Amino acid sequence: MVLEVNLISARTAWQGSYLEHKMADAYFNECAYCELNTNDFNKLGINEGDSLKVTTDYGEVVVYAKINDDNPDKLGHIPMGPWSNAVLNPETHGCGMPGFKGVPAIIEPTDDKPLDLKSLIRSYCE
Predict the structure, then answer these.
(1) What pairs with residue 35 in β-bridges?
(2) Do 79 and 12 touch, CB atoms closer than 8 A?
(3) Is the pLDDT of residue 99 over 90?
(4) Which of 4, 9, 109, 116 allows an S-S link to 84, with CB 3.0 to 4.6 Å?
(5) How do 59-67 and 75-77 pair as beta strands?
(6) pTM of the model
């Protein structure tokens, strides 16, 4: 099963609190997930903590699934950081910041696990 979503990214309070500690497990735990609501979880047949592959025209990334019932149907949210950057439009339109909202994405369950930060960055060089 796959789900087409509108992908957004934003800074979260917890993700922002670990900006000075990006190599810490806590930063990984606060950034390497995608929030979907319960309806979308049911459509995908997944549970919280399962792995998801998120694919856009800009790349793909594996993250953990997290429930957020404040999200409307077919809205995925990955906190701002290296995992979201892997699938967001890198175009900055001259302002130095990419667009963090409204990226069409395909989400599907996977048996793969999210890469830690070093491995994720290393994958950009391959």
Answers:
(1) 66, 77
(2) yes
(3) no
(4) 9
(5) unpaired
(6) 0.90
pLDDT tens track for 29-75 = 889 999 999 999 999 999 999 999 999 999 999 999 999 999 999 99
Residue carrying the six token digits 């399962």: 50
Tokens of 64: 């953990």
- φ/ψ (deg, to 5) at 33: -145, 160
Q: In sequence order, which ranges of the chain are alpha helices (DSSP H)?
A: 13-17, 25-31, 38-44, 82-85, 117-124
Rounded Cα distance between 125 and 123, Å, is: 5
| Dist CA 120 CA 23 (whole Å) | 12
Task: Report which DSSP code applies to 110.
Answer: -
Cα–Cα distances in Å, from 56 out to 5, 16, 21, 88, 110? 10, 24, 28, 7, 16
Q: What does each C-alpha distance from 28 to 5, 65, 91, 103 come to in angstroms?
A: 23, 13, 25, 22
SS3 assignment, position 11: coil
